[in-house]
Design brief:
This protein is mainly alpha-helical. The chain has five helices and two strands; from the N terminus they run ααβααβα. It has a two-stranded antiparallel ribbon with strand order 1-2. α2 packs antiparallel against α5. The chain is elongated.
Length: about 130
């Protein structure tokens, strides 16, 4: 029962997305803290991660989902917003942080509820 729950596709995807949301939050925080740093280029999660995850989910490949790696990359595609080459837009980063926080909270609740189901199965009672 426990192994089956931990190997479910939705649970595996949620855990992976929690890791990504955490890394994204750190990247956004770095971007915000460097909004005034000359020449700083914003950080983000590699854009092909979502496509890779979606493809693995469509194929029900739980093992590959668990092994899927993501990278924090430097965003060179976004044009500079300042003369010194910095490409961080504060309002956009604050919006990204807000969206990421909501996603992180949702995923945390989903994973927590999955673990509560395991606890219920072990104890045999609803908490």
């Amino acid at each position: 029962m426990i192994d089956e729950t931990l190997m479910l596709e939705n649970y595996s995807i949620a855990k992976k997305l929690l890791d990504v949301a955490h890394a994204k939050h750190q990247a956004i925080a770095s971007n915000i803290s460097n909004v005034e740093t000359p020449g700083y280029k914003r950080q983000d999660i590699n854009v092909d991660f979502d496509a890779q995850l979606r493809k693995l989910a469509q194929n029900d490949d739980v093992q590959s989902i668990q092994n899927l790696d993501f990278q924090v990359i430097t965003d060179l595609a976004t044009p500079s917003v300042r003369a010194d080459g910095n490409n961080v837009q504060l309002d956009k980063e604050l919006l990204n942080m807000s969206q990421n926080s909501v996603q992180y909270e949702y995923l945390t609740n989903y994973v927590s509820n999955s673990l509560k189901q395991i606890e219920t199965a072990i104890k045999g009672q609803v908490v």
